[in-house]
Amino acid sequence: MASRQLEQQITVDGQQVLVVRSARRTRTVTADQVAGTLRLRVPLRLSQREVENHARAFQKKITRRASKKPRSDADLLDRARALSTRYLDGVPQPEAVTWSAQQHQRWGSTTSTTGTIRLSWRLREMPTWVQDSVLVHELAHLIEPGHGPRFKALVEKYPRTAEADAFLAGVSWADHHSS
Questions:
Q1: How many domains in the chain?
Q2: Is the domain of 94 the same as that of 161?
Q3: CA-CA distance, 99 to 135, in Å (whole number)?
Q4: How far apart are CA 61 and CA 80, in angstroms?
């Protein structure tokens, strides 16, 4: 018995949407993008108004995701300098801050002789407050190379340090215990 599927192109708020109605689909609505066009897979019985509402919701979600693009290296340098000013009295002035695909075990590293900070590419998809915490940690290394009491006092000036440390510990734990 062949499954019944109907495809139609509609326009919602000026954007093309490909709607795939399926008799086999009873409740769920899913969406993806195909060549820049939103494709909705919906139950056959869904009304046109419901389809349009789902299309708007998915368009909004896609727009929100696109606005959360990862920071560029230039953005990272600007952010590091702003964090230095706000939390570390502007003392550490990094020369460069870059994403690194070479760092798999560490979240960040600093070369104090050149003023260069590298952040693991794995941080790119993490919340900005986690990235900021790692940046402050690495900035603190431009002042204090070790992890002693003076270093800890510098790092703790960032208010979400403990929260970010817990977040990263959870990610690390999950990485080591995934099958």
A1: 2
A2: yes
A3: 11
A4: 29
